Each structure stands twice: as structure tokens, then as C-alpha cells.
Amino acid sequence: MSEAKAVVESDAAGPPAPPPAEEEKPDLSHVWVVAAEIEVVPKVAKVADYRGSFKATEGQRIDALEVYCKGCRRPYDEVTGQDCSAKIDNRHLIGGDQSTRAKRKIPVPPKNARVVPGGRIERRGINAYVGGVSRPPR
User: Got the DSSP string for 85-97?
Assistant: First the structure.
């Protein structure tokens, strides 16, 4: 009878918990890009200007102007071996913490200025279209 109690008590605790799974660490490595200077013929320049990209010829030498991280925009020699600061916290790229930034100052009108209310502008419907809100006036 004591054996039956022992089995029941162990069943109440449930099966042993599995070992905790290893948490995947986020990838904090830099993504390196190269700012380059490539000499092209006028035809390729026209295509590159129109499409924003072009194909370089095989064996063409490309001069690297700068090597930097695509995320944190810091030069290669300054941050080699460090984690990418943009992947940790990118507030430095957006001008700091947005909740503590100073608000824009509203300009103060001159002393002798008067505020004159304007007419109502129709922004929706057929009147807006005909009135020139959605297209420039002629």
C-alpha cells in the first residue's frame, strides 16, 4: 500500500521538466557596404541615372571610397570587432529619445499683426475636385 502512495505522489508532481532551451542571441554583427567610384561610358551613365542601378563589366576595377556599416553608418576602422550600435539601440540615428526632445517653437506674430480667419476649404467630394483642391487651379 505504501508503494501505491509513492507512485501517486510522484504522478501528482508530473513528469520532470525539460532542461531550459538555449535562447537564441540576436545577430549584432555589422553589415558592411562600400561606397565606390566607378568610371562608366555615357550609355551606362544614362541607364544608371534612369534605373538607379547598372551592370559593371567583368574584370572592371572599382575604387572603394569608404567602407562603413549599413546599419550604424560608422566607418569600418572605428567599429571593427564591436557590436552594431544600430541593432542594439538606434536612437542615435533618429536624433535621440523622441519623448525627451524639445518641441517645435511656434513663431510669435508681430505686435501689429492681426489674425484674419479664412474661408472654409472643401477637401472632400465633388466640390473639392471642381474647386481646385485636388488639382492645381488654372
Answer: HHHH--GGGGTS-
**pLDDT score recorded for residue 105:** 87
Look at phi and psi of residue 132 and say left if phi exceeds 0, alpha if psi is from -120 to 50, else beta: left
One DSSP character per residue, 25-83 reads PP-----EEEEEE----HHHHHHHHHHS---PPTT---EEEEEEETTT--BHHHHTTS-
Neighbours of 71 (CB within 10 A): 19
- pLDDT single digits (tens) 20-69: 767 777 788 889 999 999 899 999 999 999 999 998 889 988 999 999 99
Cβ neighbors of 123 (< 8 A, separation 6 or more) are: 133
CA distance 55 to 65: 19
